[in-house]
Amino acid sequence: MGSKSIERDFEDIIVKYPETLKCIPLLLAVCSKEISVTDANGEYKFSFRKRNYSIEEYKMFMRKTKLFDLLENHIVSNLVDYATGVETGLDSNGRKNRGGHLMENFVEDYIQKAGYIKGESYFKEMYIHQIEERWNMDLSAISNHGKMEKRFDFVIKTNCQIYIIETNFYTGGGSKLNETSRSYKTLAQEVAVIDGVTFIWFTDGSGWHSARNNLEETFDILDTVYNIRDLENGILRTLV
Known about the structure:
The protein is α/β, with parallel strands linked by helices. It is 47% helix and 18% strand.
């Protein structure tokens, strides 16, 4: 923890003590010793019983899941407490946020592969007022005439259109999914009256099985709802 050479130190530990791989899923609050992940380069099924990929690929896993960030920047105050469930159990919102950030990173990979450049043709975490100021847009239909501020995960700007994008991933069901689908249904109706703006929602996860009716209601209003498979099939290149 707090290492200033986190990747090199990680490699040293894995080479000297390969059994420490078994600890990694616990840091993500995952019970399984195998974790399947997908990024813009393909699908990986990492084993944490016995190393089945190169150390460089395990470094990629640690980097993209933000575990290096967790360790390097002391985001967790006590690693032992965290690993034994004290902080993991109390910090359920934190785990949900990490899942959301992973989906954001995944979507961003595909935005970049579609040829968009950060700070030029796509922007991350942009507020309504920033969009209005940058492109002289009137988004009062979304902001309730300036009374409400909202931040979008991504904004893509093309010659003739602005795409505002939200992303999330749900591994479990619950009221949050219903609230999200209802709020995005309302947002879709508000955006529909604004010329030159399109709302896109990227979402996925097994949690939607229990909330599929709510998702279907939103899809009836918002037909630009996509999942991971759509991203893999190049939806950003054909749509945007």
